[in-house]
Every structure is written in C-alpha cells, then in structure tokens.
Specification:
672 residues, alpha+beta, Rossmann fold, 8-stranded antiparallel β-barrel, 33% strand, globular
C-alpha cells in the first residue's frame, strides 16, 4: 500500500481524504494557496506545501506546482478530490511521467467521459439513452440561438468541462439564450480554463438521479445504488438523498446496468458517477459522467457502509475490488444538506468573512441512526471570496426517509454559525416543506416553491408554542439569577410572577408558569393555537450566552437558535423565526405603545448584494432603463450574477466601474 499521498485540493474534501488515509496508516501531504495558509486541511495533514496566490488559476489549477510538491515530499500518489484538476486528462498524464500514481480513473476514461460532449457521444455509441441536443462546438451567441430554436425551447446551455453548476444556464427564449451563452462561456473559462459549451433539450419537471459506480484495473465494475439530487438552485445541488424515493427495484437495476455498461465501455477504473435526468414516469436519459468523487458521496457511504475514498486508494494501488454486485445492500435512508456561506434572505447571495462561531452538532452513530458532518472550516477561520462557498455537508442516516429527514431537521436546528450569513434557515424550513417530505420532487422545486425568494416562516401553531415555552424558560432562568443575586447582596428579591406575555413577532402568547427558582420549570398553560397542553415540563442545561437552547419540552428533544436582542432574543426553530420578548402583563401593555423605527429608503439605489468584483456596468448616467434590464454584473464565489432593474427609471449617478471590488451594500448606481 502507498505510504504517502498528496491531496490536490482544499476544504472539506481534502479533510475527508485525510481522515481515510490516516485510518489506513497512510501519511498525507496538503497543498495550499496563500488564502489557505491557516486552513483546516493544512493543519490536519502530515506535511503541507505552499503552491501560489489565492486565485485557483495561479495555485490549485497548476499541474506543475502539484507535481513539484509530490517530488519535494516523496508522495507516491495524488488524490484530486473534486473540482480543480480532478477531471483534467493532462493531470494524470503529467503525474505518470514522473512515476506518481493518480487516485482516479485512467486518462483514457477521463478523455471519454470527463468532457461532457465526448461523453454523450460515447453513451450514444454504447446504446445508452441520451437527451436530444447539439454536441458540436458553438462559435457565438448567434449560432447558439439558431441551434436552440432547432432543438426547441427550453434548452440547457452547459460548459463542456463543467461541473458543480458552474457554466450552466437554462434558456426559455432567444434573449435568455444569447445572454446565457455569454455568461456560461465566461464562467466556464474562469472556473475550468475551457470555454466550450454545448446545448441540449431541457426536460420539463425533471428529476436528477445519479448512479455511483466503482471499477478496478482488472475489468470489474459495480454500481452502488443511486442518489437523488433534485433539490437544486441555479443548477447547484442543495439537498441529496439515497436512495431515490422515485425508483423501484426494476428501474434501479436498469439504470445501474446502463451505468456499468458505459463504464466498462471506456475502461473505467475508479469511483465515478453516471448522471441521469429522470421523468416523473421513471423514464431516464443520460446526462453526463463525472469521472471523480462526487460532493454527495457520503449518502452512498451511509447506506452501503462502503468507504469510497478507501476503495479509490486501493484500486489505484492495483488491488481488485473485494465487493461483488451481489454484496451491495442498501440499508436505510441518508439525507445530506449542503451548508453554504450565502444569504437566503437576499436571494442566496454569497457571504464572506470570519466564522466568529462555528458549532456543529455532535457526530454520532447508534442503531441505524447517525449524524455526520464533513467540513473543512473551524471557528475563527475565514470564508474566502476565491473558492466555493461550502461550509459543511451535514448528513443524517436513519431506517426510513422520514426518520432521516426528522433527524436532519434536529441536527440543523442545533447547528450554530455566526459572523457570516449562511443557508441553515432555508435548509431547516425545507425539511418541514410538505412537498419535500412527500417526495414530490423536481429540479425546479426551489424556483417553484420560492418564486419570490426565501423568507423565514412566521411561527404558528405548534412552533408558536415551542418558542413561547423556550422564551419563558429563558426569562425564568434570568429572573431566578437576578433574585439570587439580590438576596446575596442583602436586598429584598422581587416577587415571582406566574403570568407571562410572550410577544413573538406581532403575536402575543399568554401563559402561566409553575415552579419556583429551585423546582423544574413548567409551562402550566399556553393559550390559543399555540397550545402545547397543560402542565408541560421544560428541561434544559441552557445558560445565558449559549447560542443554542437545547433541552426537552414535554419529553421531546428540542433545539432552538438564540440570537440576543435588546430586551429579548431572536429565536429560530424548524425554519420559523421571530423576535421574541417576555413581559409581565403590565409591561406588555406599555410595550405596545412604543413607536417602531422606520427603515431607510433605498428604493432609488442599486446596492451591491454581496462582496464581489464588478465585471460589467451596462448603463450610463442619464440612461433610461426598463424593469428587467441588466444593469451590472457582479462576480463572487466563481459565479457571475446579473443585477436587473426592478422598475423603470433614469440613471442619475454611476459609482462603480468594471474591475472594482465592492463590499456588501456598496452603492453601484443611483436613480433620479
């Protein structure tokens, strides 16, 4: 077996590979850019080598830098992770010339499958069902429109060397096709160094299902079930699960056998993924093959018990697969949430900065249930603008799908991040969405269910009662501490008041509490549609300052996010969030008379929605704009975002030019 391997990647996937290598007794070498000098993967590895400036094109994408790091450290093999050089045919070729093993498929398989255009040709030759489209190179936007009109709208414009949702656009008409072609090429060039794109028919109401394959260098290939990745935003996967709730055994077998046949046709010899677009009727068409480890591989590992990274290493070393197709058994259900540094309340715009607090839920495994958190960050670390905004992948495993979803919801409620914006509020809300829980999925789910963007749900019913009980318990603890301090100082403690008014947003919940300072706290009664019942015991070890309230309410485990406010807290639970304050009845009456501060008027300003680089300004001073017109393009986290006019107007002032780096809420344009 190898004694030392280098991981040509960063972040959570580098940490993931290091964990398996360490368990196998293999030493590891990390590489890092200047932006990653203090990163977790650097500290975890046995050795680390600096490879250049922050931009990936000047560090992680330079093959000669990786090869030099291998030679300097004596690394015998390289694991590429995903992204960066993982699907670049030239990378394993360059390694082989230096006698270094590539922990991934052979160059021929990468050439056949890694290029999205060539993979479709290979699939068609292997009699695999493919989506109608144009597989040749496209010269310009004019030709793209002509091809799209021949295929018929809607169409998908995709980067040939792409992945991870980069360089991908859906077009429903001529204008969107022209604009999408330009943006897709630009993103493809900056992310992959290859601006070729192709166009194919976009299947309406599709589901995204992929088959995990595993091959060795002795001609053996098996499939390890499927993953469903239909919950996507801008073609970027958000939630993955395994197995798929759509498939039956017959369809699973048919898709698996097609995936294996395709892998064998190109001599595939590592872990890889064959992606399909599926109709609601279980029809399916080949999309592409990713010749690498997928981001979402943990859900497959959880239901099969197979460590895919270990298998990749063993295959690269020349070992035969020890697993036969008949040995693959799917056990239970796994759900993965991708936790991103992005603001769901501002149309999921990227967020960068320091992780002031990073407190994930504890990892554990017991009796078919488990929580796993794959991450590459730590408290005090920074989220950089140069790379993908992923913070962590939270995975839960349970005997059934609904149990796995419920466990995921509990784990998300307990996951605390501060210092940057993140998408946990959206993920927790999604776990409660009826359509998700009922598995009525499609890749258009988020766009269809959140057409006007995401906003925190207003707590109601059961959630209202939970937040009221937690707020009352927190207030009770604070009052008990103050009474104790008063007594210690020789003063007369204030009276214990049983009746409380919990103001949750604009709603009041009147309740009675039972129990003195030394007794278990109990909610005697909650009124209205926030009823929890009578005489509910609330137990917790929470202490003021803790960012998560964890305990039991009526014997049920509950975790609630707590953000301090003036004279109150903002509480978040299962995607419902509200400012909460606890009053006596007389205090509540007086608080209702207090005026509210009006928000600043920004209706005549175009603000930069995220920290980023201005790629283009499309208007000039004095210019007339119509609602929907493109005003500017801002690049952040490797994605180009078009800012459009919300209404008709006249440009009064332009405060930025192409090439400027702006902070969030910086004024780009002013309107008359």
């Amino acid at each position: 077996m190898f004694t030392k391997i280098l991981i040509a990647n960063r972040g959570e996937i580098a940490c993931r590979v290091i964990k398996t290598a360490r368990r196998m007794g293999i030493k590891t070498v990390a590489v890092y850019s200047e932006a990653d000098a203090q990163a977790m993967h650097v500290t975890m590895a046995d050795e680390a080598v600096a490879i250049g400036p922050p931009p990936a094109a000047q560090s992680y994408l330079l093959i000669d830098k990786i090869v030099a790091a291998c030679k300097a450290t004596g690394a015998e093999a390289v694991h590429p992770g995903y992204g960066f050089l993982s699907e670049r045919e030239a990378f394993p070729v360059a390694l082989a010339k230096e006698g270094i093993v590539f922990i991934g498929p052979n160059p021929g398989a990468i050439a056949a499958m890694g290029d999205k255009i060539e993979s479709k040709k290979a699939a068609a030759a292997a009699n695999v069902s493919t989506v109608p489209g144009h597989l040749g190179e496209i010269a310009d936007a004019k030709e793209a429109v002509k091809i799209a009109e021949q295929i018929g709208y809607p169409v998908m414009i995709k980067a040939s060397a792409g992945g991870g949702g980069k360089g991908m656009r859906v077009a429903f008409d001529r204008r969107e096709c022209e604009e999408g072609f330009v943006l897709a090429r630009s993103e493809a060039k900056s992310s992959f160094g290859d601006d070729r794109v192709f166009i194919e028919k976009f299947i309406v109401n599709p589901r995204h299902i992929e088959i995990q394959v595993l091959g060795d260098k002795h001609g053996n290939v098996i499939y390890l079930g499927e993953r469903e990745c239909s919950i996507q935003r801008r073609n970027q996967k958000v939630i993955e699960e395994a197995p798929s709730p759509l498939l039956d055994e017959k369809t699973r077998k048919a898709m698996g056998e097609q995936a294996v046949a395709l892998a064998k046709a190109v001599g595939y010899d590592s872990a890889g993924t064959v992606e399909f677009v599926a109709g609601q009727d279980r029809s399916f068409f080949f999309l592409e093959m990713n010749t690498r480890l997928q981001v979402e591989h943990p859900v497959t590992e959880m239901i099969t018990g197979i460590d895919l990274v270990e298998q990749m290493i063993r295959v690269a070393y020349g070992e035969k697969l020890s697993i036969k197709q008949k040995d693959v058994k799917l056990d239970g259900w796994a759900v993965e949430s991708r936790i991103y540094a992005e603001d769901p309340f501002r149309n999921f715009l990227p967020s960068i900065g320091r992780l002031v607090r990073y407190r994930p839920p504890s990892e554990w495994s017991s009796k078919g249930r488990a929580i796993r958190n794959d991450t590459g960050v730590f408290e005090g670390g920074e989220i950089s603008m140069f790379y993908d905004p992923m913070i962590a992948k939270l995975v839960t495993h349970a005997p059934t799908r609904l149990e796995a979803i419920e466990l995921q919801a509990q784990a998300l409620d307990a996951f605390h991040i501060a210092g940057i914006q993140h998408n946990i509020p959206f993920l927790t809300a999604l776990m409660q969405h009826p359509r998700w829980r009922e598995a009525r999925l499609s890749t258009g789910f988020i766009a269809e269910e959140y057409p006007n963007g995401f906003a925190a749900r207003v707590p109601d019913g059961y959630e209202l009662g939970i937040l009221a009980a937690v707020a009352a318990a927190m207030d009770h603890l604070g009052n008990a501490r103050r009474r104790h301090i008063t007594q210690q100082m020789g003063g007369q403690p204030f009276a214990f008041a049983k009746r409380r008014v919990v103001r949750i947003g604009a709603r009041d919940v009147h309740l009675e509490v039972a129990g003195g300072d030394k007794e278990p706290f109990r909610v005697a009664k909650i009124n209205g549609d926030g009823t929890l019942g009578t005489d509910i015991e609330v137990v917790s070890q929470w202490w003021p300052g803790d960012p998560v309230w964890s305990g039991t309410i009526g014997g049920q485990d509950v975790s609630v996010q707590v953000t301090p406010l003036l004279n109150g807290s903002r509480l978040s639970y299962r995607g419902a969030s509200a400012d909460v304050r606890v009053y006596t009845e007389s205090e509540a009456a007086l608080a209702s008379l207090m005026p509210e501060k009006a928000a600043a008027d920004t209706s005549k300003l175009l603000l930069c929605p995220m920290p980023g680089l201005i790629k283009a300004i499309h208007v000039k001073v004095g210019g007339e704009v119509k609602a929907g017109d493109a005003l500017a393009v801002v690049e952040a986290m490797k994605m180009e975002n078009v800012l459009r006019a919300e209404r008709d107007g006249t440009v009064k002032k332009v405060n930025a030019t192409a090439g400027d780096s702006l902070a969030v809420d910086a004024v780009i344009l002013e309107f008359a």
